[in-house]
Amino acid sequence: MASLAQWIEGARPRTLPNAVAPVIAGTGAAAWLHAAVWWKALLALAVALALIVGVNFANDYSDGIRGTDDNRAGPLRLVGSRLAAPRSVLAAAVASLAVAGLAGLALALTTAPWLIAVGAACIAGAWLYTGGSRPYGYSGFGEVAVFVFFGLVAVLGTQYTQALRIDWVGGALAVATGALSSAVLVANNLRDIPTDAESGKITLAVRLGDKRTRVFYQLLLGVAAVLTLALSAATPWCLVGLVATPLALRAAKPVRTGQAGPALIPVLRDTGLTMLVWSITVATALAATAR
């Protein structure tokens, strides 16, 4: 039986910045429009956190029962390591996704009912990433889904639920956040290329190969940097987001220098920290200088 600490590790706390950063960025975009609403921001945060924990447990369950996690170099997986019964991990996934659904329903009903359809799509995307008979995560579309759901949808959705409109600032924040969030998954899949290829999990990293995946990861970081410069057109104070550059360089170093296996695990943490620091600083700059 898995301990509490192992359940927490199984939830993959290193991925939580992927949930927190988009809400911060979206709230900063709403503040730029003089429309930040704190309780809606908290509801959006509840949706994002519950959704990503649900994704992680669903991934653990689906990969575990397929045998994909039987031999991996990454963080602990509960089913693959035989620490928890598959049905227990499945229950944790369903419970987390249910919490995300309830919080999202409350947010939609207080904003615009059509957002319920968006929320349903997010939950379906969470499950079908590695679940179902034809999981899209096994066909190389995981990074696209992360970009859409934890970039475009999360940031612009957070801005819209508070401001009831979106603008180019929110769009730039959404693309930059999506790029950084996708970079986390790229780093994860880069580490797992050998085991994923062996188990038949054809991720984008498996399709690109080791060398091109490393280039792709660094390009995603570059997209965020370029968009930070572009956001200075809204307010030059957005350039404060470049304080995350040292973290980005630290994250990229193992990728750039050809490290493999467990040596790539810190890349997930450092990429997530880059995204979190970037979102906090840019959102604060937007909120402080809104006209």
Automatic annotation (TrEMBL):
Coiled coil: none
Keywords (A to Z) from UniProt: Cell membrane, Membrane, Menaquinone biosynthesis, Transferase, Transmembrane, Transmembrane helix
Record-listed E.C. numbers: 2.5.1.74
UniProt catalytic activity: an all-trans-polyprenyl diphosphate + 1,4-dihydroxy-2-naphthoate + H(+) = a 2-demethylmenaquinol + CO2 + diphosphate
Bilayer topology annotation: Multi-pass membrane protein
Claim: Transferase is one of the keywords in the record: yes
UniProt pathway annotation: Quinol/quinone metabolism; menaquinone biosynthesis; menaquinol from 1,4-dihydroxy-2-naphthoate: step 1/2
Location of the protein in the cell: Cell membrane; Membrane
Primary location: membrane
Transmembrane segments: 37-58, 89-108, 114-132, 144-162, 168-187, 215-244, 272-290
Pfam families for the chain: UbiA
Keyword Transmembrane applies: yes
InterPro entries named in the record: MenA, UbiA_prenyltransferase, UBIAD1
GO molecular function (one): 1,4-dihydroxy-2-naphthoate polyprenyltransferase activity
Assigned protein family: Belongs to the MenA family. Type 1 subfamily.
UniProt-listed NCBIfam families: menA, PRK06080.1-3
Function: Conversion of 1,4-dihydroxy-2-naphthoate (DHNA) to demethylmenaquinone (DMK).
Name the record gives this protein: 1,4-dihydroxy-2-naphthoate octaprenyltransferase
UniProt organism field: Mycobacterium paraterrae
